[in-house]
């Protein structure tokens, strides 16, 4: 995984920092964005192997960001995160643009497993 670049997008500091602390020791290069706007700026400057995006954020939410990312780069690998129970409130598959979802709270092992699975696609 050395050199694999991941952009973590979440409005919660603790989630961004936790992801970075989990992924960097595994050899991933991790950038952080606290908003959809910041993520689009970074995405315009850098190339990422995977984007890890929270669904619920103020301003540009994760689903809007996902749609824009897929418009700019249809093959971009994306993993969505949510703190909401998707079994009771399912997200329409067309809104997910084929992206998988990681439910919060998650353990470092859950995160690593989902990241590895997403990168293997």
The number of domains: 1
CATH topology: Rossmann fold
Strand order of the largest sheet: 2-1-3-4-5
Largest sheet: 5 strands, parallel
Provide a compact summary of the structure.
The chain contains five helices and five strands. With 121 residues, it is an alpha/beta fold.
Describe the protein in words.
This protein has 121 residues and is an alpha/beta fold. It has one domain: Response regulator (Rossmann fold, 3-Layer(aba) Sandwich), CATH 3.40.50. The protein has helices at residues 13-23, 36-45, 62-72, 93-96, 108-120; strands at residues 5-9, 29-33, 50-54, 78-82, 100-103. The protein is globular and about 30 Å long. The protein starts with a strand and ends with a helix.
Write the layout of secondary structure elements.
Elements: E1 5-9, H1 13-23, E2 29-33, H2 36-45, E3 50-54, H3 62-72, E4 78-82, H4 93-96, E5 100-103, H5 108-120
Parallel strand pairs: 1-2, 1-3, 3-4, 4-5
Please describe the structure with a list of short key phrases separated by commas or semicolons.
single chain, 121 residues, alpha/beta, Rossmann fold, 5 helices
